[in-house]
Amino acid sequence: LHEVVWDPQMCTTRARASDLQELMVTAMRSPLKEEHQQIVKAQLEADPKLVFQCGLTPQNLPDLVQNNSVIATEVLLRLLNSNQKADYFAALENMDMNQHSMAVVNRLTSTVQLPSEFVHTYVSNCIRSCGNIPDKYGQVRMVRFVCVFLQSLIKNNLIDVQDLFIEVQAFCIEHSR
Fold it and tell me: Do 44 and 19 form a contact (C-beta atoms < 8 A)?
């Protein structure tokens, strides 16, 4: 006599990965509703290895950061132990600096210890990007975001000010108004 054994977990990982992929494609195009964000978080918490099957690449990371910074943070936290983390850090460094990318980096720095080279390069890019904004109002707004970001990093002892002293001092003098 043969007994039929049924595995209720069979193919559920593949189905969850497919659902997560669909949500991630949407997340890269437009902001997700709160309930969909919770679904993504829950699936990533239930199976952290799904992050490798969700369809995120360093090339489309800027789109995810721009549209869903909270999801980007959750995904990056799970990718920090992978061998691809340098590619994702490079994508964060090279993307257009804005409040969304600063929010992601701020959440990451307050959660885990990021490489100091990355944080320094990112801060330098933020400072440099303020000078490249032609619109006066947009420049003032970006300077404020960078100041709040720097204040948060300094207050939480996440950067050594001495390493960036000259650059931060020049930034403060240039944008003292």
Answer: no
Nearest to 142 by CA among 102, 89, 91: 102
Q: Which amino acid is at 98?
A: N
Residue 37's closest CA among 48, 24, 54, 49? 24
Query: For a pLDDT cut of 90, what percent of the chain falls above it?
Result: 37
Angle at 25 between CA 33 and CA 53, to 5 degrees: 115
Per residue in 8-38, pLDDT (tens digit) is: 555 444 545 678 889 899 999 999 999 999 9
176 backbone dihedrals φ, ψ, rounded to 5°: -65, -25
pLDDT at 150 over 70: yes
- Burial code (b: 16+ CB inside 10 Å, e: under 16) for 59-69 equals ebbbbbbbbbb
C-alpha 65: how far from chain center: 6
pLDDT at position 52 is 87
| pTM value > 0.90 | no
Q: Which long-range contacts (CB under 8 A, 24 or more apart) does 148-152 make?
A: 149/102, 149/105, 149/106, 149/123, 150/123, 152/106, 152/110
